[in-house]
Structures are given as C-alpha cells and as structure tokens.
C-alpha cells in the first residue's frame, strides 16, 4: 500500500466543502445553503480548517467573505476532490476505510496499514454502503473484493486524496514551508541514470520536499497512477495511453543493444544473425514492446524466436544471470554501464534501428503543483542528456 502522504492530519470532507462553497459564493449565507449547513456550522467548519492549516482563509467584512491566497489555492483542489468523491454523505473516515480495504484486500490488512481496528473499518465501510445506497464489497473467504461500483468509488476517493494532497502542498509552499512528497512510479529504463540524476538535483533545490520511488512494470504502476496513488510514472511510453486515461510525454529515445557476458561465443562475431536463436534469452514479458521487437528482429534475420525460458524485468537479476551463462538479452547501455566499464559484460549495437520513447506518463488532465512542475522540469533537463 502506498501511503497517501497526508499523514495524521484530520480529514473532514465537510470542511473542504465549506471552503469551496464560500470561495465560490463569497457569502456565508449562500455558501451554507449550497452545502446544506447552518451558517454557524459553516463558520465553525472554516475556522476548523484555518486552525488545521495554520492560515487565514477569508477576510470578513460587511461586503462578505474575501478569499485569501491560501483559500484560492486550496479551493480548486477541494472542488475537484468533492467531485471525485461524488456524494456529500461521505466522511473522511469512510473514505480512508474504503481506500485501505481496496489496497489491502482484507480488513485485517487494512487495519494493519491504517492503525485502525478491524471493527472500526467494518463499521465505516458498512455505514458508507448505507449512506450511498450501494453495495461496495463482496466477502470471499478471508478476503473481500470490491464490486465494480466499489472499484469506481475507490478510484474516485484516491483521486480526491491526490487533489487534497496537492492543495495542502500548495498552501505549505505559500507559507514558505516547502513540504509534502512527490510519489514517482519508476519503470526499469528510468532507474539507471535519469531518475537518480533528477532526484539529486531536486533534493538540493527543494530539501523540504520528499520523493518516494515506487518500482514496478507498466502493468503494476499504471493502475496506481490512474487511481491517484502515485503522481507520475517514468519509463518506456506505451501506445494507447489515452484509452487508459493517461497522457505520455516523450523525453528521450533509447536504443536497446545486445548484451552478453565477456568472452561469450558471439562476442567476436561481426554481425550476429540467425545464430542468435541458438542461445537462451532473458527478456521481459510477452506483452512488452521490447519482447515484440525481439520477435520481429529474429524473424527478419531468418530465425524463429525460441522459447524464452527466463522472463524477467529486473535488471539486477538479468545482469547476474548473464555473468553465469551464455544467455543473451536486450538492454539499454545505461542499465549496464557499470558492468560494461568493468569489462564483465559486453554490448553490441543492433542493425534493426529499433528505439523506444522514454518519458513521463501522467493522468490525463493532471494539474501539477508548482513543486511537482519543478520536478518535471528537472526530469526534462536531465533527460536531454540521456539520448
């Protein structure tokens, strides 16, 4: 489970709804009517949020409520979060409970992740189902599974949390407290040089902002990205991102090379051809663009692609396997630069001309904070030197 980054801050959805309504209407009376609260309750909600954030959100006058800069920063995020939640009946506790259950797959796991008791989580989810009039979970033995409706709700709740995280970070930046955390999904091709260089530069410029790196494949990271658990994903871009609700930005091109151990029988062969199929291969899964390219490449050389006995996406594991066998693989030079410099592995350029677009994938319509935008700018700058 990826922590949401808001920490122990009390999360009262009505407080954020009160803020958004007051900014939108500029009047306590009209805002109270819009969110179905009494005027004293709305005033109390705004005061509670001001105390929690440590800022003044409105200047009170006879003319009405004038939003301050922190309120103007937070209000669009609050509006978006409320839209994603989709119901004024949802409480912060219920939101947290469903998200924890969705990520853990059991009440026991959710309790361990949140520190809440299983009984409290049971009650919160049950109350949420009653409030929404929808069945959100199905029990399956010791585990629970979200219904399709529950999955949609959980995704909306995750996106709401991402918006609130961003709003709180923007307010903190306005206060001069560079804070918060950027959560990066890192696919293999981003981990060797590109991402480390960007993080090092970012950490020097923004020492108060944390960076959390979540490693995985496209399949493992795209769901958490869509659900708001991670902020952006780095690595090889995929076709059809728009259909998945994602957007990709190419930063540099990578050309895979043939990699083998030093002293491999093919090391001295000027232009390896069909004999490539005579050796064992270590490659990522069959659904990856690199695996599909490998098949096309071998067929173009007049060989039928052999069975891949070892499927692996871990560069660390692949490197060790290469050292102990006559296996072959396709990797970026940057992924094995240390071994190439040490002379324990060797790489050969391929005549196929195949290249992969490496870049940044985000949720479609993602609105980065100023700090997130600064990190993305550093990724672009560092990526310019990777080609």
From TrEMBL:
Domain HTH lysR-type: from-to ranges: 11-68, 94-147
SUPFAM superfamilies: Periplasmic binding protein-like II (SSF53850), Winged helix' DNA-binding domain (SSF46785)
Signal peptide (from-to): none
InterPro entries: LysR_HTH_N, LysR_subst-bd, WH-like_DNA-bd_sf, WH_DNA-bd_sf
Keyword Transcription regulation: yes
Top-rank taxon, per record: Bacteria
Keyword DNA damage attached: no
Keyword entries, A-Z: DNA-binding, Transcription, Transcription regulation
Pfam families: HTH_1, LysR_substrate
Family label: Belongs to the LysR transcriptional regulatory family.
Record-given protein name: LysR family transcriptional regulator
Source species: Novosphingobium humi
